[in-house]
Amino acid sequence: MFFTNRMWNVPEARGISRLSKLSLRSRDCDKNNQVLDYGNNTMGILDKSISSLEMKLVAARAERESLSGKFNISKEAKKRKYFMVIGINTAFSSRKRRDSVRSTWMPQGEKLKKLEEEKGIVVRFVIGHSVLSRGILEKAIEAEEKEHGDFLRLEHTEGYMALSAKTKTFFATAVSLWDAEFYIKVDDDVHVNLGTLKKTLSEHRNKPRVYVGCMKSGPVLARKDVKYHEPEHWKFGEVGNRYFRHATGQFYAISKDLATYILINQDLLHKYANEDVSLGSWFIGLDVEHVNDKRLCCSTSSPRGCELKAVMGNVCAASFDWQCSGICLSAERMADVHERCGEPENVLWTSNS
Fold it and tell me: Which parts of the sequence belong to the DUF4094 domain (predicted)?
C-alpha cells in the first residue's frame, strides 16, 4: 500500500460557484435595497407628518395674529401671561341673565380691568352673530358692548343646535387671543366664585393636559321627541348605552395644551348634538387627565348645597341647579344665590396663587 502526505483538493466547479456567489450577492443587494426603501419610505412619512404639523402650527400662529389684530388686543396684553380665561356662554335673548351676573360675581368697569392686570383673570360674555347681520339683535348687542365692554364676539352664527361649533370656536379664539394656563366655559345661569375657582384650578397648574369639571355619563337618547336627542346614537353602541365620561356642560375648564389642540385641529373635530359630549369626545384618544371636582357643581337649592358649604367654610367654586341645567330663574335668583353662597370679596383680591 502506498501512503502520501499530499492533500488532494476537490476541483472547484468554477462556473456554478461564480453563479451562486453572484446570486447570493444579488439577494443581499435586494435585501439591502428593501431595507433602504423601507427606511426611505419611513423617513418620507415622518417628513410629511412633521411638515404637516409645522404647517398647522404656522396656520395657528397666523390665525392668532389675525385675531389679535381684529379684537384690538394690545402688544402688552399679547405678551402678558394670564391664569385663566372665562367665557360666559350667552344668547341674544339673555340680557337679564347677563345683568344678573354683572351685578353679582363678575366685576365691572375698572375692577374688570384690574382683575386682568393684577390677577390674570379674563372674563367675557361669549356670543356669535345673528342670521341677520344688521338686524335688531346685532344692534342691541353692539349697544350693550359699548356700555360694558365685556363681550367676546365669535365668528359663529348663533343657534341652540350650534353649541358644539360655538364651544370649539370659543376655545380656538380664546387661546389665540390670551396666553393663559386655563380656559373655561360657563353658562350665564351659573354662579361662580372667582377667588375660589382660581384656588381650585391652582391645584392642577403643573398638569399639561387636564380637563376639569363635574364628570357624568348620561344615557344616549335615541328617541327624536326628547330633549338632548342624539342623532348619531348608533355610534355609541346598542340602544340603552351610556355616553363616555365627560364634564357636564354648565361648567368645565381645560389646560392650554388642550385648547391649543382644539385650535390646530378644529377643522377635523367632530360635533355631536350636545356640546359637552363633543368636548369629551375630542379628548378620548389623548393622554388627558380627567378631574371630577364636585366643588364645580354645587346645588343652590339643596339643604346640603352651596349655602351650607359656605357657612362651613368650604365655599363652592361654581353652583347651579341640576333640574334646571343652571340656576332656576337665574335672572331673578342670582342675587340671592350670591348672597347665600358667594365668597367674601377679599378672597379674590388677596389671593396669591
Answer: 1-63
Examine the pLDDT at 198 and tell me if it is beyond 70.
yes
pLDDT, mean over the chain: 86
Tell me the C-alpha distance between 280 and 272, whole Å.
Answer: 10
Q: Can you tell me the distance from the alpha carbon of 106 to that of 122, in angstroms, rounded to the nearest whole number?
A: 10
What is the residue range of 225's domain?
71-350
Task: Decide if pLDDT at 137 tops 70.
Answer: yes
Q: What is the pLDDT of residues 5-27, one digit of tens each?
A: 444 444 444 444 554 554 545 55
Burial degree of 167 (CB within 10 A; 0-12, 13-18, 19+): buried
Domains held by the chain: number: 1
Matching residue, cell 365668528: 155
What is each CA distance from 211 to 41, 183, 236, 248, in whole angstroms? 37, 10, 22, 12
Residue 177 resides in a domain: yes
Q: What is the pLDDT of residues 119-134, one digit of tens each?
A: 999 999 999 999 887 7
In a domain, 161, yes or no: yes
Q: Is 347 exposed, middle or buried (0-12, 13-18, 19+ CB in 10 A)?
A: middle
Residue 352 per-residue DSSP state: -
- Structure confidence by residue, pLDDT tens digits, 246-263: 999 999 999 999 999 999
Q: How far apart are CA 295 and CA 267, in angstroms?
A: 33
In Å, how far from its chain's centre is CA 296? 17
| Grid-cell match 389679535, residue found | 68
